UniProtKB/TrEMBL annotation:
This is Stage 0 sporulation protein A homolog. Residues 126-222 bind DNA. It comes from Muricomes intestini. One of its GO terms (molecular function) is transcription cis-regulatory region binding. Residues 126-222 form the OmpR/PhoB-type domain. SUPFAM superfamilies: C-terminal effector domain of the bipartite response regulators, CheY-like.
């Protein structure tokens, strides 16, 4: 699991990084506090440890910006002990609020609890995947965009499911074919092209024209 630490005090930042790495987490500790929310979204951590008092911005503001784009778990870790700060943190979308000085075993336990809770939630919600506002419903085998909906064939669903799972990445054509083969659906290179063309037509029918990008000689990306 990957944890992003946002703490401007160098000694505490180093201490947290060592503690988390010793607990076998992958860790990045930010040292640049410009456009913090953008950095969080780009790095895609499994959890964020967020201090409240940062240069030129508060942790509350950063949390608000992150919540506009993502449900990444956020734990506030701060020296501010006022109960109103804790309430504000929860209302802003924080998943937990831990005050300094913290006890290492308790901090690790609270992190593990939030990660576990998040994984359970993701499992329950994983029947619907979303990319650029387009919803892929795995149970009802359809695409939804706004108020419009279109049904998918089994192959179309499998192709889109694989692309949505790798959103932002270029997925090689061979990988997609092998994925479908492993799922016991035979599909050759030409069949893949035909299915992608059909998917694009269905996307167009619900008002989506540029969801699937073709990278010539490489593969597809959403």
């Amino acid at each position: 699991m990957y944890i992003l630490v946002i703490e401007d005090e160098p000694v505490i930042r180093k201490e947290l990084k060592i503690l988390l790495e010793n607990a076998l987490y992958q860790v990045t500790a930010l040292e640049d506090f410009d456009s913090v929310a953008e950095q969080v979204i780009r790095k895609k951590p499994d959890l964020v440890l967020l201090d409240l008092n940062l240069p030129d911005v508060t942790g509350f503001d950063i949390c608000t910006e992150i919540r506009e784009q993502s449900e990444i778990p956020i734990i506030f870790l701060t020296g501010r002990t006022d109960s109103m700060d804790e309430l504000t943190g929860m209302l802003k979308g924080g998943d937990d609020y831990i005050t300094k000085p913290y006890q290492a075993p308790i901090l690790l336990a609270r992190i593990a609890a939030v990660l576990k809770r998040t994984r359970i939630s993701e499992t329950k919600e994983s029947t619907v995947l979303t990319c650029h506002g387009v919803h892929l419903d795995l149970v009802h085998t359809c695409l939804e965009y706004g108020e419009k909906r279109v049904d998918l064939s089994k192959n179309e669903l499998k192709i889109l499911h694989y692309l949505f799972q790798h959103a932002g990445e270029i997925v090689p054509r061979l990988d997609m074919i092998e994925h479908l083969w492993e799922n016991q659906v035979f599909i050759d290179d030409n069949t893949l092209s035909v299915n992608v063309t059909r998917i694009r037509e269905k996307l167009k029918s619900i008002g989506v024209t540029r969801l699937i990008e073709t990278k010539r000689g490489m593969g597809y990306r959403v």
